[in-house]
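Example 287, ligand adenosine-5'-triphosphate.
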Amino acid sequence: MLRRKRDAPGADGEGEGTAPSPATSSAGSGDPLAPSLEARSLTLAWEGGPDVVRDVSLHVGSGEVVCLVGRSGCGKTTILHALSGLTRPVSGTVLLHGRDVTGTPGQVSYMLQKDLLIPSKRIIDNVCLPLVVGGMPRAEARAKAEPLMERFGLAGTEERWPGELSGGMRQRAAFMRTYLMGNDVVLLDEPFSALDALTRTDMRGWYCRMSAELSLATLAITHDVDEAVSMASRIYVLRGNPSGGVPSTIAREVVVDRPEGASAPEEFALTPAFLEAKREVLSLLGG
Ligand SMILES: Nc1ncnc2c1ncn2[C@@H]1O[C@H](COP(=O)(O)OP(=O)(O)OP(=O)(O)O)[C@@H](O)[C@H]1O
Ligand SMILES: [Mg+2]
């Protein structure tokens, strides 16, 4: 039986999902050749309920963006909760750099489906939150975060309030706060869903560049097949109908064949290879 480990802030979909910790990388522990994140044969159910997903295995390597797609209610967020250690699987194992972390929260950075900034805190204090909650003095946390503001496209916004920023800027601030949780494995639940189409396109390219620079291993959930194909090196297609009594499983892992010279998501989206992968994912979701 899957049990909620604790009532994390945001377990209802708001705020951060893991206990923030000082920005120290967990890379290097465990087996250096192991994927950054691996799930082996996860079967998950909410307490007292039937299985939501059954026998799900996946992996994400350093510097890789991998997407998990599936219809609404098929169990994507349930999987992310278990990977983050907020809940414990019925069976199966979660490995981080080869180390068993099943049911252990605080090991990965997790940005929940509705990841809101705190309106009454300035941007710099919003992004520093994981450090401050982890025990770092506020001035030290600010000094640590300030040099990163430019990389996250937030230079000059330090003293502004969330309500004064564009949707894309707010989203970058939420990413930065997630990054400052200090883990090199990042779980994102519908990260761009609140943004308009053009900002989404920009943010996809920005995120892919930044995650490669920082060697993050990212598993992102999205409903948007275009988004998955344009960003991911691989896509896990989850299929099933848990509320109808059919636990979801991974129908297929689609490897996205990205041609030379089309590494940016917006360029790749104009190629025949993009359409081919999109068609494959759509047919799996439709079937
Ligand atoms: N906290 C919870 N307690 C009990 N059941 C839950 C809980 N959260 C989700 N479920 C159930 O688990 C199943 C999968 O839900 P989940 O939120 O993982 O879907 P999802 O794929 O993320 O959907 P969406 O794309 O709409 O976000 C659904 O049947 C849902 O009702
Ligand atoms: Mg969800």
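Summary: The helical segments are 76-83, 123-133, 138-145, 167-179, 197-213, 225-231, 265-268, 272-286.
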